[in-house]
Specification:
Layout (H helix, E strand, L loop, with lengths): L2 H8 L5 H4 L7 E2 L19 E3 L4 H14 L3 E4 L18 E4 L6 E5 L4 E5 L4 H10 L16 H6 L7 H4 L6 E7 L5 E4 L12 H5 L8 E8 L6 E8 L3 H15 L3 E8 H10 L13 E9 L5 H14 L5 E4 L3 H12 L1 H8 L3 E6 L5 H15 L2 E8 L4 E8 L12 H14 L15 H7 L2 H14 L13
Parallel strand pairs: 2-4, 3-4
Antiparallel strand pairs: 1-2, 5-6, 6-9, 7-8, 7-9, 10-12, 10-13, 11-12, 14-16, 15-16
């Protein structure tokens, strides 16, 4: 595939000789949870499993692997969806689990900063922030399992990226071990630090291919005093975009989430999770979930009522519900958050995590639907973070058919969806990264100069090719 394939083949398996070089007490028995990934596309392998207790032990492990030329696969919560956390082929690597490095080292409420180790779960970081009267605004459905190191390594986005950005925007500094075993201690709490290359941003999103993130300084925000949540039925995606623009004009950056939900997704939930309470008697073709957060003195309910009224007058919304309690708001959010589980139970032919310029979204949805209809009888569940242009565009068998019947079409479907997104100025990977699943897509559609620069960086920092072999660049 490229020069790194040869390096992967030249690596040695992790075995007794390497084990003898590692710090005392770091080796643990390999369990199935260290070798799987949520979609079941890959089965990982491990010659050894190391679970260090501190950054010095991580550094010692990396140095030993570099000397022995053994690949390292970093393991966080294992929630990634593109196979970056498993190595299915090649010499058995050392799997490096950060699960024992889970401390919240310090919280600085006055500075809106929290320092957490890489093995801390996203949920524990959010709880620590809340305990200090602050909020860490990154929110994922998997936050109980996802670890901060993995969240940063994949530059996770989530439902609130519209207002607060992705993981990269919420990180002020990192501590990391580089491929030669040196420790980069850059846990600064600064908003401004103009001192050369930003290696923090280089390691964030690198999926463990350039180093191991061991801790991070994270940006906190004051929690909104008042929060409002509403569901609004829209005629089509074009109307949803116009509603987003109207919400922005009326509420500015108070809109923290704007989620597109399709009728197909609601029908899947009715089919697979009938116990879930549906908000409307019949699933609408399209609706949006809106969350806003306002400061003291402003009423979220009144703001949402005004938005609904003005949007209805403009023909942008057909029906709507404003949550009247925290419980009802949680019910609205649960409906959105269970859509991936409903998809999983139905079983997709091909799933896609794409992003598009906002103005291209309606045209993409129409064109992709027509092209897939010409290929065969299939169902489409298109949903996601409309506010930041991130769609989850998933294709399913027709009723009464199984995905095995479409196996011969899966590669063509994926290529069609990704190519169409790229042709409209979008990306075939919005928030899940490249991992191993999308290596060929990156080689096919990545800008040649950018890919050459990425390979040069990889070669300079990791000349032995030991860091997460096979991920991102192959």
């Amino acid at each position: 595939m490229n020069e790194y394939l040869g390096k992967e083949e030249a690596l040695n398996p992790a075995g007794p000789e390497l084990a003898a070089r590692l710090p005392d007490g770091v080796l643990r028995e390999v369990a199935p949870r260290h070798l799987d990934e949520p979609r079941g596309r890959y089965q990982g392998q491990a010659g050894l499993l190391a679970a260090p207790r501190n950054v010095e032990e991580v550094a010692a492990i990396v140095r030993a692997c570099a000397e022995a030329r053994v690949g390292i696969v970093p393991r966080g919560g294992g929630t990634g969806l593109v196979g970056g956390q498993v190595m299915p082929a090649g010499p058995a690597p050392l799997v490096l689990s950060l699960e024992r490095m889970a401390a919240i080292r310090q919280v600085y409420p006055a500075e809106n900063v929290l320092i957490a180790e890489a093995g801390a779960s996203l949920q524990s970081v959010r709880e620590a922030a809340a305990g200090a009267g602050r909020m860490f605004p990154l929110s994922l459905a998997s936050q109980g399992s996802a670890q901060i190191g993995g969240v940063l390594a994949t530059n996770a986005g989530g439902v609130n990226a519209l207002r607060w950005g992705t993981a990269r925007a919420l990180c002020l500094g990192i501590e990391a071990v580089l491929p030669d075993g040196s420790i980069m201690r850059d846990l600064k709490r600064l908003r401004k630090d103009n001192t050369g290359y930003d290696l923090r941003d280089l390691l964030i999103g690198a999926e463990g291919t350039l180093g191991i993130i061991t801790a991070a300084s994270l940006r906190l925000v004051p929690p909104p005093v008042g929060t409002g949540v509403a569901l609004m039925v829209v005629p089509d995606p074009q109307a949803a975009l116009a509603l987003l623009a109207l919400a922005g004009a009326q509420l500015g950056d108070s809109v923290s989430a704007f989620e597109l939900i399709s009728g197909q997704g609601l029908r899947f939930l009715s089919e697979t999770m009938p116990e879930l309470r549906q908000p409307f008697a019949a699933p609408p073709d399209w609706m949006v979930l809106i969350e806003i957060g306002l400061p003291t003195g402003l009423s979220p309910d009144l703001a949402l009522e005004r938005l609904f009224s003005d949007a209805a007058e403009a023909g942008l919304v057909l029906d709507g519900l404003i949550a009247q309690s925290g419980q009802q708001a949680a019910e609205f959010w649960r409906l959105r958050e269970e859509i991936p589980e409903g998809n999983r139970r139905v079983g997709s032919i091909s799933s896609h995590d794409i992003s598009l310029p906002l103005s291209e979204i309606p045209g993409f949805i129409a064109e992709a639907g027509a092209m897939l209809a010409a290929m065969g009888d299939m169902r489409i569940n298109c949903f996601g973070h409309l506010g930041d242009g991130n769609l989850h565009y998933n294709v399913f068998p027709a009723p009464g058919r199984t995905r095995a019947e479409y196996e011969g079409l899966r590669a063509d479907i994926q290529r069609l969806v990704h190519q169409l997104a790229v042709s409209r100025g979008g990306s075939f990977s919005a928030e899940h990264g490249i991992g191993r699943l999308k290596v060929a897509d990156l080689a096919r559609w990545g800008d040649p100069a950018r890919l050459a620069a990425m390979r040069a960086v990889k070669a300079a920092l990791d000349p032995l090719g030991i860091m997460n072999p096979g991920a991102v660049l192959g």
